[in-house]
Design a protein that fits this description.
The chain is mainly alpha-helical. It contains ten helices and three strands. It binds manganese (II) ion (MN).
Length: about 240
C-alpha cells in the first residue's frame, strides 16, 4: 500500500505538470510561428555602407551617416519586407522591378511598396554615388552630358541645387534620362523614384531633413552646395551606361 500510494501521488502530480508543460510548449511554438510570420522576412536586405560613417566629413557628419544608413534606410528595408511578406513571388523581384510596376501590385500594398521600395532603391544608389575624397570636376561620359545639356558644370550645379532647394517638404532632386533619351533635372516628393515614371535616375540628392539637419540645421542650400564634394563620378558614369 505504501508503494502504491507513492505511485498514486506521483501520477497525480505528474499529470497536471505534464499538461502544463504541453500547454506552455504549444503556446511557445505558436508564438514563435506568429513572430516568424511578421518579422523574419529577409528577402530585401540593407547593403553595408561602402565606407566608414565618418568618411564623408566634413561635408556629411558621422552621426548623420550612422542614423541615415542604420536607422532610416534599415526601416525602409524592414517595411518593404513586411509589405511583401504574403507575396513570395514579389519578394523574388528586385526592388527596382517592384517600383517600376506599382500598378501591377495588389492595391493594399501599393503605397507601402511605393514609399519603402522607393526608400530602399533611393538610398542604395545614394551611398554608392558618394565616396571619401570625392567631388571635383566630372569626367568621362557624364562630363559630356553635362556640357551638352547645361553648358558648364557650374551652371548644372546651380540649376540642380536650385531645384533641390525649392522642393517643398521631403524629397529628392535628380538628373534623369527620360524615355526619349533626353537628360533633365527633376524632383520627386517623399521617397518616390524616377523609375516610377519611366525615367532613369543618373544621380540624385536626398533633401529630407534627416540627410542634413544635425550639421546644417535648416540650411538646405548649404548642404546641397557641400554635397558635390562627396560625389563619386565613376559610379555615376556606371549608372549612365546602365540607363541606355
Ligand atoms: Mn534619406
Amino acid at each position: 500500500m505504501h508503494v502504491s500510494k507513492r505511485n498514486f501521488l506521483r501520477t497525480a502530480f505528474a499529470a497536471p505538470l505534464a499538461a502544463t508543460l504541453i500547454t506552455k510548449t504549444s503556446f511557445a511554438v505558436a508564438g514563435h510561428q506568429a513572430a516568424a510570420q511578421t518579422t523574419a522576412s529577409t528577402a530585401f536586405t540593407l547593403p553595408p555602407l561602402p565606407y566608414d560613417y565618418a568618411a564623408l566629413e566634413p561635408h556629411i557628419d558621422r552621426m548623420t551617416m550612422m542614423l541615415h544608413h542604420d536607422k532610416h534606410h534599415q526601416t525602409y528595408v524592414t517595411n518593404l519586407n513586411t509589405a511583401t511578406i504574403k507575396n513570395p513571388n514579389l519578394q523574388k523581384q528586385t526592388p527596382e522591378q517592384l517600383i517600376r510596376n506599382l500598378s501591377a501590385l495588389p492595391q493594399d500594398i501599393r503605397t507601402p511598396v511605393q514609399n519603402n521600395g522607393g526608400g530602399h532603391v533611393n538610398h542604395t544608389m545614394f551611398w554608392r554615388i558618394m565616396k571619401p575624397a570625392g567631388g571635383g570636376e566630372p569626367n568621362g561620359a557624364i562630363a559630356d552630358v553635362i556640357k551638352t545639356n547645361f553648358n558648364t558644370f557650374a551652371n548644372f550645379k546651380e540649376k540642380f541645387n536650385d531645384a533641390g532647394t525649392k522642393r517643398f517638404g521631403s524629397g529628392w532632386v535628380w538628373l534623369v534620362r527620360n524615355p526619349q533619351g533626353k537628360f533633365e533635372l527633376t524632383t520627386t516628393a517623399n521617397q518616390d523614384n524616377p523609375l516610377m515614371e519611366n525615367m532613369y535616375p543618373i544621380l540624385g540628392n536626398d533633401v529630407w531633413e534627416h540627410a542634413y539637419y544635425l550639421k546644417y540645421n535648416n540650411r538646405r542650400a548649404e548642404y546641397l552646395s557641400a554635397w558635390w564634394n562627396t560625389v563619386n563620378w565613376d559610379e555615376i558614369n556606371t549608372r549612365l551606361r546602365a540607363a541606355k
